[in-house]
Specification:
By secondary structure, the protein is an all-alpha fold. Helices cover about 80% and strands about 0% of the residues.
């Protein structure tokens, strides 16, 4: 037997310990050489990221310091209540009305968007100016200068009309969602949208909530984009945008009055004035020194830019919805639209999936924007009428009745979806309410904003007064035509 037979087996761990001198040598002689290399390798990505961020910041500062970009930023900061008020006008109910105009008459009613723009802007500017100068909402001013019974009648009708409108909008949002995600139940969607909307209004601070509404206006661009994803005869579009086309038929007159009622709507009057007050209080809380004559003039100037910009967006969206439906539904014989969801469903096979999705998602976004304005405007009107603590800048505990009106309005609107009432009928009831209120409230607005004792140097000009009385007369005729056509 050789010597190997007497060598015991290698104990566990012996190989590791046997290598210790090699490990020790590595740490002594090799590691110092490798360590700087590793440091460079791992440092390089971080240095590259740092240089990229620094360079990007430099480029960003150069771009933002350029005059055109600064102008855009200043313009965006100027936009506020006017932008959200104009955008809220294009709610799902309004979308249904504009879609019907395009489906039934093609491009013939495109001129209405240009016609309503200056009148809508003039009225909303008067409301905003009343809020800025008096530091009170529209209902508070009416209460101060007119019989209370007139105010109570208007606010009661406004509450009813807005509640029906909320119900119709919630239903349209749920139906539009089901077009994209059909497996989700209608009840779940309606309740979900109502709860989310209520939660945002009640528990989100006003400053954040105002920003949310402001950024939500971008949703309206989906209707403009839709027009450029399909083929339209732009020569005919531009022609009918400028040249009025009237058939003088009962159906067209009714549709024009419906568009006027949807565009120049009482809930926008109350919301605009009250939001202007909220914004002013927010600005003064940030910097009390802003309440000077110079900044006062600046506020009026910025308010005009805001209002006219918001109303331009509102009417531009109306224009493009009529154009899209006129260039697709009308040409294919689809002439009867009873809701915004109907319009989206009818467009789907005609315009393709992308355009359909833009149209359907726009309904959701405009609903989330308009429902708080509908509920909020009714609450401002009622709360100011009874001198309750008012404003979204207050917490729930500071303004129980104010938020209570919002909650009740939302619950009643939601309940309409489970009573079997047709959404189209809900819109009709809402239209009747608006038709009755609008001329009366317009008279109050015109008289208050023209009164130098109330408005001082910021009262209406002679031109504004003439424009105001003209649109009041138009809305009075539109209201009478709506009521007569519906009941007779």
């Amino acid at each position: 037997m050789g010597l190997s037979a007497h060598i015991p087996p290698t104990p566990p761990g012996f190989k590791l310990w046997a290598r210790l001198p090699a490990i020790h040598g590595f740490s002594l002689f090799i590691a110092p050489v490798i360590e700087p290399v590793l440091k460079k390798i791992f440092t390089a990505p971080a240095v590259l990221l740092d240089k990229t961020v620094t360079t990007s910041n430099g480029i960003y500062k150069k771009i933002t310091n350029r005059r055109p970009v600064k102008k855009v930023q200043e313009y965006w900061k100027t936009l506020g209540p006017g932008l959200t008020t104009g955008a809220a006008d294009d709610d799902p109910s309004g979308i249904a009305t504009y879609s019907q105009a395009g489906a039934q008459y093609g491009f013939q009613m495109l001129w209405v968007a240009g016609f309503t723009y200056p009148f809508m802007s003039a009225v909303q500017e008067m409301c905003a100016r009343i809020g800025l100068v008096t530091n009170r909402g529209l209902a508070a001013n009416i209460r101060e200068h007119y019989p209370k019974w007139a105010l109570y009648a208007c606010t009661a009708l406004l509450f009813v009309a807005n509640t029906f409108n909320i119900g119709a909008d919630l239903g349209a949002m749920a139906q539009a969602t089901q077009l994209v995600v059909p497996q989700v139940s209608f009840s779940f969607l309606v309740i979900g949208f109502a709860v989310v909307s209520l939660g945002l209004q009640i528990f989100m601070c006003y400053e954040t909530y105002a920003k949310y509404l402001k950024f939500l206006t971008f949703v309206l661009l989906s209707y403009i984009f839709t027009a450029f994803t399909i083929e339209l005869d732009w020569t005919q579009v531009l022609y009918h945008a400028v040249i009025p086309s009237l058939a003088f038929s009962e159906e067209q007159i009714f549709l024009i009055t419906a568009v006027l009622g949807t565009t120049i709507s009482p809930y926008l009057f109350f919301w605009q004035a009250s939001q202007q007050v909220e914004e002013k209080l927010l600005l003064q809380a940030r910097s009390p020194e802003t309440a000077t004559p110079k900044t006062y003039k600046k506020e009026i100037r910025e308010m005009r830019i805001d209002v006219w910009s918001g109303m331009f967006l509102s009417n531009a969206v109306m224009f493009f919805i009529i154009a899209v439906c006129g260039g697709t539904l009308f040409l294919n014989g689809v002439t009867n639209i009873s809701s915004a969801a109907d319009a989206a469903a009818a467009l789907r096979p005609l315009v393709g999936e992308k355009a359909f999705l833009l149209f359907a998602l726009g309904i959701l976004g405009t609903g989330m924007l308009a429902i708080p304005v509908l509920a909020g405007s009714a609450s401002y009107a009622i709360s100011e009428s009874f001198k309750w603590n008012t404003g979204l800048n207050r917490t729930l505990r500071q303004a129980y009745p104010f938020y209570g009106v919002i909650i009740v309005s939302m619950i009643l609107g939601l309940a309409l979806q489970f009573t079997g009432i047709n959404p189209f009928k809900a819109l009709i009831y809402s239209a009747v309410g608006n038709a009755l209120i609008a001329p009366v409230v317009l008279i109050f607005i015109l008289q208050i904003s023209s009164n130098k004792k109330i408005m001082g140097n910021h009262s209406n000009t002679v031109l504004t007064i003439y424009v105001g009385w003209f649109i009041t007369g138009i809305m009075l005729l539109a209201g009478l035509a709506t009521v007569i056509s519906l009941f007779l």
